Inverse folding.
């Protein structure tokens, strides 16, 4: 993982996990802008509910803000998106900023935010506890260090 001061995304295995989490929330829908934004909100709420128990809501929002900051260097549409006021909105201004963004780019950007959030959690509480929190919401979530074939098997 990169140091906290780095402007780069976390390692590719966490990026795949972030994409996997978003895909689980999109499983019953398509990939339209509105569906991706709704899936992003569901994913952030699921993580936020669990993390707030451990870190407080303010702590979760601070990690989410940092995750957004790290992702926006690669995904410009995230500039202006911030942690929302709990419990209503998780990603404030995402719907507005997602307008005219290609669905694939939108999914990659949200996946990067989720991956960064998990990477930061790994740094602060350790990978095992971070994964346990993720698996409370998504019991079938693959381990971040899985190979591509193991990750593919977990999706089946």
């Amino acid at each position: 993982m990169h140091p906290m001061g780095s402007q780069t995304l976390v390692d590719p295995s966490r990026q795949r996990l972030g994409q996997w989490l978003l895909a689980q929330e999109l499983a019953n829908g398509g990939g339209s802008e509105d569906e991706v934004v709704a899936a992003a909100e569901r994913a952030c709420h699921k993580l936020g509910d669990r993390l707030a128990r451990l870190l407080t809501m303010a702590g979760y929002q601070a990690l989410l803000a940092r995750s957004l900051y790290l992702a926006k260097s690669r995904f410009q549409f995230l500039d202006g998106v911030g942690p929302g006021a709990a419990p209503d909105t998780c990603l404030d201004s995402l719907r507005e900023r997602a307008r005219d963004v290609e669905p694939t780019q939108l999914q990659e950007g949200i996946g990067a935010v989720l991956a960064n959030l998990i990477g930061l959690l790994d740094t602060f509480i350790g990978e095992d506890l971070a994964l346990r929190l993720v698996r409370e919401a998504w019991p079938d979530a693959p381990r971040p260090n899985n190979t591509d074939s193991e990750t593919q098997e977990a999706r089946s």
In short: The beta strands are 82-83, 91-92. The longest helix spans residues 33-72. The CA atoms of residues 132 and 139 lie 9 Å apart. The radius of gyration is 14 Å.
